[in-house]
């Protein structure tokens, strides 16, 4: 085979100009040619030529011109251009322990269709688990009216470290039976999709910073604390994954006094509630005791449940103090399956936080970190998956990292 042809300086300049205009249209909304000239520094003829190329490729459209506003004298209407969010789509997948959730979004990140499916058994074999996930993806694409050929990128979140190729997880067998070592791109995505697999806590951090409580922060620690705890870490707006994808694994908590393991809020609240029932507590709701049972009863003033939540607050204050000492984030966010009820235990965490910080750094006692509950609930991971998929589109389809600009999947759609 011959050597690959190098890109000429003129071709590189053309690609750079096209990518600059495309990114502006995508991030800033519709713009006139004058707007684009001012923001890019390109001459008007180049701007119109680039926009014409983007329209031909299906990434942009020309809007109705704006009539000039002035003294009433006739003038030339300003040509306006806009990015086409429907030029392609992305798929976000949260492949969890108990549930798979799938979200299809356009290239503006707007949800088009979404659904989730609970696994029949948390120990469901891997092949059956993947079959349920594939069926959910197919169903959501059909609901969105999107064909596989219209999807540009997908991101998949899993509860465990992911190797450097970001396609395989090393999740513990008890969390994801039969999934460790499986190439999830081959198992779940179409061959034409650019696909990334990442830890669910990492995606939760991306989602919370993009659409949640942490939108104003660059340094974020996001703790998924449903059945188990894992952390997604953003420093200067970038994910910290570590050498083998294990930066947010919190197994060292077994060394932390008063924490002891990575059991999450849902698991501990349920266990505390079950013990209280065995000791004679009569919870206000019928049925098996869940985390929501305990948190809701505490919010309603049940004295036993209030005491249980206080125990949770003491433990997770030590979790927060430890993570604050390690990473010193602007904001520390707790999320997961009980995030919607999270405000119930936040006051308890804040009550115990000064003592927890003083135990770690007694002189001087550090300033308490800002701690919040996720505002995205059980959609936090799939929201982050969409964000990562959109970044993949930038890098592989829209001229990012020197990638060639190809025709949009829906280039012929009016």
Biggest sheet record:
5 strands, mixed
Radius of gyration: 25 Å
- The H-and-E topology, N to C, reads as HEHHEEEEEHEHEHEEEHHHEHEH
Q: What's the number of helices?
A: 11
Strand order of the largest sheet: 6-5-4-7-8
Q: What is the arithmetic mean of pLDDT?
A: 88
Helix content: 25-40%
Count the E strands.
Answer: 13
Unreliable stretches, pLDDT < 50, 5 or more residues? 1-5
Strand percentage lies at 15-25%
- Large-scale geometry: elongated
Which class of secondary structure composition applies to the elements? alpha/beta
Give the N-terminus to C-terminus distance in angstroms: 41 Å
Features:
five-stranded mixed sheet, 414 residues, alpha/beta
Give a verbal description of the structure.
- There is one protein chain.
- The chain has helices at residues 9-28, 33-40, 44-57, 126-144, 184-188, 200-211, 265-278, 291-299, 303-327, 346-360, 380-396; strands at 31-32, 60-66, 78-83, 89-95, 99-106, 111-118, 151-158, 194-199, 220-225, 229-235, 238-239, 331-335, 370-373.
- By secondary structure, the chain is an alpha/beta fold.
- Helix 1 crosses helix 3 (44-57), helix 7 (265-278) crosses helix 8 (291-299) and helix 8 packs across helix 9.
Give the SSE map:
Layout: H1 9-28, E1 31-32, H2 33-40, H3 44-57, E2 60-66, E3 78-83, E4 89-95, E5 99-106, E6 111-118, H4 126-144, E7 151-158, H5 184-188, E8 194-199, H6 200-211, E9 220-225, E10 229-235, E11 238-239, H7 265-278, H8 291-299, H9 303-327, E12 331-335, H10 346-360, E13 370-373, H11 380-396
Parallel strand pairs: 4-7, 7-8, 9-12, 12-13
Antiparallel strand pairs: 1-3, 2-3, 4-5, 5-6, 9-10, 10-11
């Amino acid at each position: 085979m011959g050597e690959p042809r190098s890109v000429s300086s003129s071709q590189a300049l053309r690609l750079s100009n096209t990518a600059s205009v495309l990114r502006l249209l995508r991030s800033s909304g519709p713009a006139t040619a004058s707007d684009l000239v001012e923001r890019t520094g390109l001459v008007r003829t180049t701007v119109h030529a680039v926009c014409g190329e983007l329209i031909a490729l299906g990434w942009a459209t020309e809007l109705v011109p704006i009539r000039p506003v002035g003294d009433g004298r006739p003038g030339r209407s300003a040509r306006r251009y806009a990015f086409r969010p429907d030029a392609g789509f992305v798929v976000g997948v949260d492949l969890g322990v108990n549930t798979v959730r799938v979200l299809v979004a356009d290239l503006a990140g707007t949800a088009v269709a979404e659904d989730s499916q609970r696994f029949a058994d948390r120990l469901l074999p891997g092949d059956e688990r993947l079959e349920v996930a594939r069926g959910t993806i197919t169903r959501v694409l059909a609901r969105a009216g999107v064909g596989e050929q219209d999807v540009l990128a997908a991101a998949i979140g899993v509860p465990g470290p992911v190797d450097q190729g970001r396609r395989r997880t090393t999740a513990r067998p008890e969390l994801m039976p039969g999934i460790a070592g499986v190439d999830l791109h081959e198992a779940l995505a179409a061959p034409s999709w650019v696909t990334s697999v990442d830890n669910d806590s990492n995606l939760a951090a991306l989602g919370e910073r993009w659409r949640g409580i942490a939108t104003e922060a660059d340094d974020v620690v996001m703790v998924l604390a449903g059945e188990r705890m894992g952390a997604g870490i953003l420093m200067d707006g970038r994910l910290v994954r570590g050498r083998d994808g294990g930066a947010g694994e919190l197994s060292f908590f077994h060394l932390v006094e008063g924490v002891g393991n990575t059991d999450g809020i849902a698991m501990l609240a349920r266990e505390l509630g079950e013990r209280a029932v065995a000791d004679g507590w009569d919870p206000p709701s019928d049925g098996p005791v869940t985390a929501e049972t305990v948190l809701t009863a505490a919010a309603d003033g049940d004295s036993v449940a209030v005491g249980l939540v206080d125990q949770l607050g003491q433990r997770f204050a030590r979790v927060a103090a430890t993570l604050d000492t390690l990473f010193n984030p602007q904001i520390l966010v707790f999320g997961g399956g009980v995030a919607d009820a999270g405000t119930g235990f936040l006051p308890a965490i804040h009550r115990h936080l000064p003592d927890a910080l003083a135990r770690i750094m007694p002189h001087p006692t550090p300033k308490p970190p800002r701690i919040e509950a996720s505002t995205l609930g059980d959609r936090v991971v799939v929201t982050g998956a969409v964000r990562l998929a959109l970044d993949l589109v930038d890098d592989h389809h829209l001229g990012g990292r020197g990638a060639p600009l190809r025709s949009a999947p829906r280039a012929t759609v009016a």
